[in-house]
Amino acid sequence: MARSISYITGSQLLALKRRPNIAIVDVRDDERSYDGHIAGSLHYASDTFSDKISNLVQEVKGKDTLVFHCALSQVRGPTCARRLATHLTEVENEEIKNILVLERGFNGWEASGRPVCRCTSIPCKGDNAQ
Ligand SMILES: [Zn+2]
Known about the structure:
Strand content: 15-25%
Order of helices and strands: EHEHEHEHEH
Bound molecules: zinc ion
Helix content: 25-40%
Largest sheet: 5 strands, parallel
Radius of gyration: 13 Å
Structural class: alpha/beta
């Protein structure tokens, strides 16, 4: 059965993001390099997302909740979230239980004054880098 995808608000994400079982997946393309990002988020650009989907599943091993976002979370974020849900069904992955999309995306996150990381580390060292 395909997993359903639900939305999460920025304040909900802020409360959840320090949990070890959650991963944030940024699917913006080039914007990530000049607009900053949510600390600790992974980067899987939407244009190559399908090719790297098994790398992503490998990288988030042990996590059960994935939160997707793009700039606005209107097109790329939900599209990649649905692709992942389909992929997980195909490979019968049961580890990832929750697939969420961040409402209003990175732009909404930043506009609400939430913390933005501007490190250039790949992967982002997140909150530990500060
Ligand atoms: Zn960073």
